[in-house]
């Protein structure tokens, strides 16, 4: 993919020290909003890239200041190459929230079933992230929701039908390229058929390659056909292909499947090697050496940052030093190291050196794309009682089934995930109040609804909108038990007068008699679109 830049890359690295070559293969994280925190990493080790999150910048202005300062440090070198500055701007997860246009998320784009709209949304991602100074979107997720109860994929995937997901993934890659940015498909060879979270454990997918090709790999092939530059691996075991190692450490998977079978020619990056799946099961240095030998080109170490380990910067530096030692003592041949570094630098020369940054963006136009995608996604899945749209004269009760305390982990100091400070319910209720007369409308939080249920005398003119939500979070879960319990109580009391408003996926069954409206996402645009469809 970048072969024509190989000789330039070889010349570029010919005078680099061993430390500088090894450093070029790492994507690290650092705390806070000051580039000085990364100076030693960049200057001494010629760092290859950084994973940047909401913790590093929460506004466009902060991002521009940070990335300009980082670039200035890089450019002090005579033989500098750009750093890869990657962000999880993939809809369900986001950065620069709420200033950026997140769109409704991938599952909603899959529901909209309009590849042109998906391409437009990802073009917006590219335009906005380049304006902030980032040069890589760590998306789209090419995972297929074959296990709908996955705690970590969920609305990050485009859907559950491989062929349809493949169309959306291809459109997303093309759209992001139209937006001028580098793209990274993930989590190869597929995280969607697991019920485990690799932030915590190593999931196992016991499938043959033939089955994987049919069920999991079609979206990744679509991304490759769309000329995706980067592929992120998953820390998942596929014992029928490699009984010993998870994908990130498996040559059979990275070389045999990804490169030989699927024909990928780009850069392979690992998901964070400090995630629980790796660090709880393998010695760090040994895992890193195995990964590079297996086919990893760039290694991401950021999970310790998520955990706010006081020593994580030192630990990251120690990992680079350990790989240097491994090359010096022959455990990792320097010739192999040079090949990897040449491939990484050739990619950067081809794609990053001329990428325009910090351009003006039209946020109004971008929000129109976002709104169109959210509106196209919302569906009324059942309404035999004809509760929707809400009729004049109805007494409407809007119930927040999630207790307020259960939103505590929606925004956390790690800076990764939805980064959505305001619950989707609040946006839904605010929008509904614009279309339903105030004398009709009663808005109840979880605690208020429980007290109301204990005394309410159900009347025929009443309709209850019960809002359920979910958010995919790294290494933790958005609590559901209290919401499900309240929903069951509402169903028992109101029967066909109940409307379930799903600001989430539509995989879980709703009460039998209830109407069901689903937005397929929990972003502000999705919540507002769902409310609009109610009236």
Write a structural description.
The chain is an alpha/beta fold and 535 residues long. Helix content is 41%, strand content 11%. An eight-stranded parallel β-sheet has the order 7-6-5-4-3-2-1-8, with helices on both faces. A six-stranded mixed β-sheet has the order 9-14-13-12-10-11, with helices on both faces. The longest helix is centred in the N-terminal third of the chain and has 18 residues. It starts with 5 loop residues before the first helix and ends with a helix. The model has no long low-confidence stretch (mean pLDDT 93).
**Poorly predicted parts:** none
Shape: elongated
Q: Distance between termini?
A: 51 Å
**Global Rg:** 24 Å
Report helical residue fraction.
Answer: 40-55%
- Enumerate the strands of the largest sheet in spatial order, edge to edge or round the barrel: 7-6-5-4-3-2-1-8
The proportion of residues in beta strands is: 5-15%
**Beta-strand segment tally:** 14
**Major β-sheet annotation:** 8 strands, parallel
Give the helix tally: 20
